[in-house]
Amino acid sequence: MKRTLGVCYYPEHWPETQWPEDARRMAEAGLTWVRIGEFAWSMLEPAPGALNFDWLDRAIGILGAAGLKVILGTPTATPPRWMLTRHPDMLALDADGRPRKFGARRHYCFSHPGYIAECRRIVTLLAERYGCNPHVQAWQTDNEYGCHDTTLSYSDAARDAFRDWCAQKYQSPDALNKAWGNVFWSMDYGDFDEIDLPNQTVTEPNPAHVMAFRRFSSDQVVRFNRAQTEILRHHTDAPIAHNYMGRVLDFDHFDVGADLDIASWDSYPLGFLSDRLEDSAEHKHRFLRQGDPDNQAFHHDLYRAVGRGRWWIMEQQPGPVNWAPHNPAPLPGMARLWAWEAFAHGAETVCYFRWRQAPFAQEQMHAGLLRPDSVAAPALAEAAQVARELAALPDAGTAAAPVAIVFDYASAWAWQTQPQGADFDYFRLVFGAYPALRALGLNLDILPPDTADYSAYQLVLMPGLATLGEVATAALKAFGGIALVGPRSNSKTAEMSIPLPLPPDLPGLDATVALVESLPPGSAVPLQDGGAFVHWFEHLDGTADTVLKTESGRPALIRHGHLHYLAGWPTPETFTTILRDLCGKAGLKTETLPDGLRLRDTGTHRFVFNYAPEPLTYQGIEIPAAGVYWRPL
Ligand code: GAL
After folding, report:
1. In CATH terms, are 4-90+140-147+233-392 and 403-585 the same topology?
2. 315, 327, 369: which to mutate for ligand 1, most atoms within 8 A of CB?
3. Which partner for 151 in 146, 167, 604, 624 could form a disulfide, CB atoms 3.0-4.6 Å apart?
4. Is the predicted pLDDT of residue 518 greater than 90, yes or no?
5. Is 403-585 a domain of CATH 3.40.50.2300?
């Protein structure tokens, strides 16, 4: 399959007379795909039942005639205003019980039966009309589930659906009471209809109740998405995607992904660095115009797993965005580098967001490939360059990785439900290991928690995996490579209790977590031979071999054979030391890359990316700032 580029386009924002010229310029730049339609409900159905699809017929016809392939979005992220008149209770409520009102987007509750029926109706109409249209070669469901904190809703519709979910899962109130430990503080229920959502309680609600609500809320997203894919599949053979986000973990993407053909995600490297990462001010300054060197790669690896190998970038930042606290411009070359990094990680397609900067409404300060006056913005030439380069290279997916990190959405919910220390964040913990491994020059994979076989890997990591479960425990037992489990792994049951026997309870490892401590900033636990734990430290009992100790002589890293357990949250430098050592034990060849230089091997080439603001040298080759270099393997 040939790798391709695309762009997000909103024909409904521009006069029709402009469409042919836009289409011509897209094709001229070497773009293959154009995503349209995902916010166009009020144009398709200006009043209930008053359908107006003609303009979309013409837009698809014009784009198709220019040789472009259309990705058609279902418009369910933007219900029109009349929808609210029809279904006044369709809005999500926040945890304080306030409605998330009309006037922006994503103003719906995933559990509202009336709104789901409306979604089925509009998706059916679109699928019937365009399912066999030769220009519509892919579909996107909705837009960015979970964006703007919209997964959790405390509406009446959500409450009713949650009661049903609990009844199906636990079968009797008694079983639910036992599973949640409701005897504590007399929280027992006599009937499923007595159960409310876990908000506005006097003090913290039962963590088991919260965790059940989190699982339920994730299931509601899966259900909502499935309602659309079931309809689309009746009418089209084209692949179906959804565009996920960076560091949004509120629903289980593996579960949603099971109903889709392609995982795609929306990559905004500068926005994420400013808005979503905990890095030091110094790091943020250094990578201000390039983005964090590892955050995109992490999500590429994650979504490759969610898509079971098939994944795209549906939205790629082209210039300054509008939504981060500060919105710098990328260094010249970054719109090219970001695309190449995605391709080197196996992306089939990278679509830039958006074609032309809109001079009106919320995103008027968000750059596009064109300025509002249709003059080319800097990223257009970079996109055209990538298209030419793609055409000249043999097609090859990303190469196999020797190292894997197990990633689990439910663990993110578990540690949000009961952080026990203000800084204990699951993504932050897992992502802490990732740059250390990338700086060693390794290809990485991310694996879902139900992976049954790790034999393709030499090193597997399971940081903070709340509940291992039977599959992961058996996989670990059978694994011949090096494993690093912990901190805090296997320390909760699926119902958010402390398991017995006490954690970590790993095959053959004689160790018990006797006590855990969370650590405020500035209170690190120093390790012997340098290094430190921050945020989190566990006191271990048992006879397992100690590989590393704290300065006061407590076990910091222990092992039984190839299985290692880490008793704290390492600083970035400590993670690097530990992982370099484990890579050595696993027989992996590592490099020591300079800050900002990163590698990824495809089936045919080694790619080298320079995220630094200055030129860096790799094996005698100088790579300019924001430069990409590749050579055959
Ligand atoms: C994405 C979203 C787009 C647009 C973009 C701006 O989150 O899917 O519709 O809002 O951000 O950066």
Report:
1. no
2. 315
3. 146
4. yes
5. no
